[in-house]
Amino acid sequence: MIGLPIWFVIGILIFLSPELSEALSFDTPIDAGRAVMFSYIGLALGDMSSGLISQWMQSRKRVVLLFIIMTGMLILLYVSAPFKNEGFFYFTCVGLGFAVGYWALFVTIAAEQFGTNLRATVTTTVPNFIRGTVPMLNFFFVMAKAQWGIVLGALAVGMGTIVIALIALFFITETFFKDLNYVEE
After folding, report:
1. pTM over 0.90
2. Fewest CB atoms within 10 Å of the CB: 33, 48, 110, 163?
3. Helix (H, G, I), strand (E, B) or coil at 173
4. In a domain, 179, yes or no
5. Count of CB atoms within 10 A of residue 88's CB?
6. For the chain, how far is it from start to end, CA to CA, in angstroms?
C-alpha cells in the first residue's frame, strides 16, 4: 500500500493532465506526453536520490516517509496551481515524479520482508499488485469527480492514497539492518 501514491500520480494526475489543467484554468493546453516525460525525468532522479538518502540516513522507512509527505505536498501544489502557465505545470510534473521516485526503495522494502525462498517472487509480484490498483483508483476518482468535480475529486483520491500509504508504512518493519539470510517456513 505504500506504493499507492506512485500510481495515483502517474495514472491520474499525469495521465489526465490535459483535463486537469483545463479545469484549473491554465492559459495554454497541457500535453499529456510532455507531462509524462517530465514526470519520468523527476522519477528517475527521485529513484536515485531515495536510494542514496536511504544509505545516508541508514533507514528505508524514514526516506519513504519523507517522499510520501513530499508527494502529498506536491499534490496540493498541483491542484491549487498558484501559477497558470505551462512552465509551472511541467515543473510541478518533475516535482511529482521526483516525489514518487521511491519505487526502487518500495520494492526493496517489500523484498526484504521475506526469506530467500520467497524474495524473488515478492520482488516481482508486489509491483504488479500496486500497478493493478490503478483501475480501483480510477473507479474512486470517477466517483469523487462525479461528486465534487475533477480537481477536488483528484485531491480527495490523492490524499486518500497518502493516508493509506502512511498507515501502511507505520506497520512495516524497518529492513535497513535486517539479516536477510533466512528461509520462510
Report:
1. yes
2. 33
3. coil
4. no
5. 14
6. 24
- For 28-36, the CB contacts below 8 A with 24+ separation are 28/85, 28/86, 30/86, 30/89, 30/90, 34/90, 35/89, 35/90, 35/93, 36/10
- Domain span at residue 38 reads 4-171
Domain annotation covers residue 24: yes
Whole-angstrom distance, CA of residue 149 vs CA of residue 175: 41
**Contact in structure between 15 and 32 (CB atoms under 8 Å):** yes
Burial (CB count <10 Å: 0-12, 13-18, 19+), residue 154: buried
Q: Tell me the pLDDT tens digit for each residue of 70-107.
A: 999 999 999 998 888 899 999 999 999 999 999 989 88
Q: The CATH number of the domain where 149 resides is what? A: 1.20.1250.20
Give burial (CB, 10 Å; 0-12/13-18/19+) of 90: buried
Residue 155 · residue 88 · CB < 8 Å:
no
CA dist 97 and 17 (Å) reads: 13
